[in-house]
Specification:
single chain; 4 strands; elongated; 93 residues; mainly beta; four-stranded antiparallel β-sheet
Length: 93
């Protein structure tokens, strides 16, 4: 492999115990049991997040580096983006 290019991959896991959770539910009016309305409820519970990341760093000229990374979710736990891209430019002097 060329010394001017490096590639990396990561598997990232995170466990949160007793984290707050939000859920959708319905409730019915006591005087009219056939009428239901949407509602939300709060609870606590464990949350396991699993993500992956791949990236590449290249030396484009002298001490200039360019970085490309993608961070992506591997399960549906938590509120987060499906894919998060990152592009960076570094220069050392």
């Amino acid at each position: 492999m060329d010394k001017r290019l490096s590639v990396a991959a990561e598997l990232i896991g995170r466990h949160s115990a007793d984290s707050p959770r939000l859920a959708s539910k319905t409730f019915s009016v006591p005087s009219a049991p056939s009428v239901t309305f949407p509602d939300i409820s709060f609870s606590t519970g464990s949350l396991n997040l699993l993500s992956g990341a791949v990236g590449m760093k290249a030396n484009i000229a002298g001490t200039a580096l360019i970085t490309f990374n993608l961070h992506f979710k591997l399960n549906d736990s938590g509120v987060r983006a499906r894919v998060t891209p990152l592009i960076g430019l570094e220069y050392g002097f």
